[in-house]
Amino acid sequence: MNAPLPKSPLTDPISRRRTFAIISHPDAGKTTLTEKLLLFGGAIQLAGEVRAKRNAQQTRSDWMSIERERGISVVTSVMTFEYAGCVFNLLDTPGHEDFSEDTYRTLSAVDAAVMVIDAAKGIEARTRKLFEVCRLRDIPIVTFINKLDREARDPFELLDEIEKTLALDAAPVTWPLSRGKTFAGTYRFATKSVRRLDKDDEELKVSGLDDEKLAALLPPFEVEGWREEAALAEEGSKPFDLKAFREGHLTPVFFGSALRNFGVRDLIDAMAAYAPPPRGQEADKRQVEASEPKMTGFVFKIQANMDPNHRDRIAFMRVCSGKLTRGMKAKVVRTGKSLSLNAPQFFFARDRSIADEAYAGDVVGLPNHGVLRIGDTLTEGEDLVFRGVPSFAPEILRRITIGDAMKAKKLKEALRQLAEEGVVQLFTPRDGSGAIVGVVGALQLDVLATRLAAEYGLETKYEQTRFTLCRWASSEDKNKLKSFLDANTTAVADDIDGDPVFMASSAFSLNYDAERNPAIGFSDVKDYQ
Ligand code: GDP
């Protein structure tokens, strides 16, 4: 079903790759679905494996303790499994919205997404937000309407909501046979076949909507209504169109119950058949195609390793082109330095293993001692930088202080390291006052304080600043930018790359300054360079 790829010796391994994430609102069933997908891939023997870890993450205090045992979250950051001749790389995104920055970065490394919707609730706030992030990159989306075994909303209403609130065409591939207590399975329009709730692995052929075998699965009083409804769905909805799907304009919709392991097979089969293989990636100088022979990749996530004493970190890199082989040397474009990829790793549900080779679409963990940071591009020598691992202007700014002045230097270094991991953003005010940290969600502040104490022995405090927001300042005219920054020293700070940010006490005051300085751009997003 896949569009033919350009011929290249690497075409085959690449065309088998499916790199994706699951987007959903908390509680819609992402964890349950992940578990079931992994079971299909044989990646875990025991259902409940993912859940045990996730449940622990749900409360604040448990999250902190689990985060301290870093090994666990490393293992669940990406899960690789094989199914139907494809290699699936499922990239995990944090459940808590305070870590949404992490999620946005992760979505920059996928080629497709599964959108899980609770059939009783429809499109919820977080689903919509994550969808918008996918839309920015035209990521194709397969929809799974979950929990059909419970009270559910009318399927037409749900499809309509997808179309209206997301402005995305919805093409039902299957249609539910009843719902709630009487949910019996799904009918697939294109193949005229039925899957039954407790026999998911068997596809029963029927002659059409009027088939008696179908009627026998429904409560008698629902049969007539169901036939009409399904006929209307078949005729009235958009047919599945691979091109429109790949371009991000249309989503195929499946109905099921992750808990009952129903509908998951259709979903994963659709991912194998329709989801795109690794796509070309936009870099500053040119687009890099997955089939190019030279290895390139970018780091979208960094996680401190299990042993805090050694400051070991794992950088998660998406391979964008070529072939990564263990032991090869790669250039870190930001620093120009060479890095030997001696122990690249693959992750499975429970273990990891050394990756001897990896291809475009794969995600490898690269252990390093702080040489790599989020947004880094690695190549075999070419100077190019991948775009699309953005940084968002923080919504909370705090000055961070330490009681013991002797430790100020150590704090500075610790903050730099943690900012490189993406735990917080770090701003150094130009007026020489103490460092300011910025976060998108308040929970990030707790994580920072806990890690500073546990890993660096630094007891810190936060203080309010008079600033509530900040924007990256830029201008085509370097002189104008300099004079603006010089005139506002007390409200200017440098981020970790030395790029200037302008801090304001309110949106009103920011607007005021922006109007008076039309030559200066104030941006709330910054691409990592
Ligand atoms: P997450 O927050 O999106 O990861 O959601 P979970 O997978 O943890 O599911 C949230 C709750 O919904 C749990 O209690 C699940 O057992 C339940 N759940 C998930 N899928 C289904 C389903 O298909 N049917 C029913 N009845 N419950 C489900």
Automatic annotation (TrEMBL):
InterPro entries per UniProt: EF-G-like_DII, EFG_III/V, G_TR_CS, P-loop_NTPase, PrfC, RF3_C, RF3_dom_3_sf, RF3_GTP-bd
Single GO cellular component term: cytosol
Gene Ontology terms: biological process: regulation of translational termination
Protein residues bound to GTP: 24-31, 92-96, 146-149
PANTHER family (UniProt xref): PEPTIDE CHAIN RELEASE FACTOR RF3
Role summary: Increases the formation of ribosomal termination complexes and stimulates activities of RF-1 and RF-2. It binds guanine nucleotides and has strong preference for UGA stop codons. It may interact directly with the ribosome. The stimulation of RF-1 and RF-2 is significantly reduced by GTP and GDP, but not by GMP.
Protein name: Peptide chain release factor 3
Protein's organism: Methylocystis bryophila
Name of the encoding gene: prfC
